[in-house]
């Protein structure tokens, strides 16, 4: 059984899309199992059906308004650089509405409901493809893997949304009295789960560089401090996931191919810029071609 695993990474998902497009269309990889975390979970349905052009169109036209119904960030351009600050008005508005988070991502949920259609999910089942998304159950303090085959279409779309919600900047999903958040808080690269599901060959797309290539600038405000802290935690979670995945792959004699980003794409994955994401998709395609060849 061949599996494609895509890590979390926010806007960097465009780079993963380019890699996946090359592997599926040019390298003729036929995957049986698709696992994703956060931005990776958003891509699985289209990848399973080979709808690469449609997925590319989605990732090439995403901006802050596509994701956030209430964006907690204020984004400015200065001498070609992106500066991210706090949108105090929107943050205050969230608190006055009784929200538990600084921002809200209802627009992302609307996009998922629109693009991950019932007909697509039915087709995935008909083709005997398996798609699984990773979520963090904050109530039970555990990671959960949600299989399309075990849930209704509406519930599965909810879990895709939950997997992509980087709290406290995005919405906290409450379902069945459980609080759910970004799967990357628990398992950023679910390689071991792919092996547990029976994969014998895995292509894992990891939206970080293999070796740390930057020192972060000093925090400018509480938001940048929280972002830096979460990024620090996720880098170490990712390294742990990969180490455990490699050990499991060796033990089970599973062929494991890792695709890292060759350079640092961005230091804030919650900033969505169409031009950059279009470029990253093309860069990912070229990177995969060079690596495979």
Distance between the termini: 23 Å
Compute the number of strand runs: 10
Largest sheet, described in full? 8 strands, mixed
Query: Structural class given helices, strands, pairing?
Result: alpha/beta
Mean pLDDT: 93
Summarize the helix and strand pattern as letters.
EHEHHHEEHHHEEHEEHEHEH
What proportion of the residues is helical, as a percent range? 40-55%
If helices are DSSP runs of H or I spanning 4 or more residues, what is the number of helices? Answer: 11
Low-confidence stretches: none
The Cα radius of gyration reads: 18 Å
* Backbone shape: globular
What portion of the residues fall into strands of 2 or more residues? Answer: 15-25%
Fold and architecture overview:
The chain is of the alpha/beta class. It is 45% helix and 19% strand. The chain is built from 11 helices and 10 strands. Strands 1, 2, 5, 6, 7, 8, 9 and 10 form an 8-stranded mixed β-sheet that branches. Strands 3-4 form a two-stranded antiparallel ribbon. Strand 3 and strand 4 form a beta hairpin. It is globular. The protein starts with a strand and ends with a helix.
Provide the fold topology.
Elements: E1 2-6, H1 13-26, E2 33-37, H2 39-49, H3 52-59, H4 64-67, E3 73-78, E4 81-86, H5 88-96, H6 106-115, H7 118-126, E5 130-137, E6 142-147, H8 153-163, E7 173-175, E8 178-182, H9 191-196, E9 201-206, H10 222-252, E10 255-260, H11 274-292
Parallel strand pairs: 1-2, 1-9, 2-5, 9-10
Antiparallel strand pairs: 3-4, 5-6, 5-8, 7-8
């Amino acid at each position: 059984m061949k599996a494609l695993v895509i890590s979390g990474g926010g806007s960097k998902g465009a780079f993963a899309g380019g890699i996946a497009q090359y592997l599926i269309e040019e390298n003729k990889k036929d995957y049986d199992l698709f696992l994703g975390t956060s931005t990776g979970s958003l891509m699985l349905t289209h990848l399973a059906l080979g709808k690469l052009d449609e997925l590319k169109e989605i990732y090439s036209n995403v901006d802050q308004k596509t994701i956030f119904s209430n964006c907690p960030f204020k984004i400015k351009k200065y001498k070609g650089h992106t500066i991210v600050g706090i949108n105090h008005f929107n943050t205050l508005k969230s608190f006055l509405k009784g929200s538990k988070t600084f921002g809200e991502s209802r627009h992302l949920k609307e996009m998922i409901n629109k693009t991950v259609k019932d007909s697509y999910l039915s087709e995935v089942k008909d083709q005997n493809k398996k798609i699984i998304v990773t979520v963090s159950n904050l109530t039970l303090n555990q990671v959960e893997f949600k299989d399309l085959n075990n849930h209704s279409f509406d519930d599965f779309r909810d879990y895709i949304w939950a997997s992509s919600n980087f709290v406290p900047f995005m919405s906290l999903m409450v379902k069945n009295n459980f609080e759910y958040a970004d799967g990357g808080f628990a398992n950023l690269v679910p390689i071991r789960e792919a092996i547990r599901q029976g994969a014998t060959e895995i292509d894992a797309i990891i939206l970080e560089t293999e070796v740390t290539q930057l020192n972060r600038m000093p925090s400018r405000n509480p938001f940048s401090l929280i972002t830096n802290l979460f990024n620090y935690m996720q880098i170490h979670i990712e390294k742990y996931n990969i180490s455990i995945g490699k050990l499991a792959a060796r033990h089970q004699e599973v062929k494991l191919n890792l695709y890292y980003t060759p350079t640092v794409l961005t230091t804030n994955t919650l900033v969505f810029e169409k031009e950059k994401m279009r470029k990253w998709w093309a860069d990912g395609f070229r990177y995969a071609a060079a690596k495979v060849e």
